[in-house]
Amino acid sequence: MIPGTDFTPVVEKGYKDFLLGPIIVSIIITVIIFFLGSPQAAKGVFQGFVIGMLDIVIMTTGMRKALPFREEPKKGLSVMKRYRWYRIISASSLVVLLLKQGMNVTGVFIGLLLMHIFLIFNLILITYRLNKGKA
User: What is the pTM of this model?
Assistant: First the structure.
């Protein structure tokens, strides 16, 4: 992912480091949108956040399942490819389900996109802490 950084210790510890920051930020943004006077948009954005969190949990689970295959990278890669399909199927199924129920399309996709942006920022912070610990 990021050259020179080994995320193995973070993945082995569990989901806490990956999800805690994005969850807190997503709750704050949902509350702000709700109090700005748009409860329907806040509901759609929150649903997008939930789909994004599920996607991150599936991704992290795939990474944890691939860890035992460090010496056999091709097996680890096949595990990660399988979990990529799990992510695509689950996220697309949930989005289609929400859209069929008449939910806020824009809010769902904005929430899903923001959750992944928050994950990237969180990974940048984790990388900074890991690299700072090595120095």
Answer: 0.78
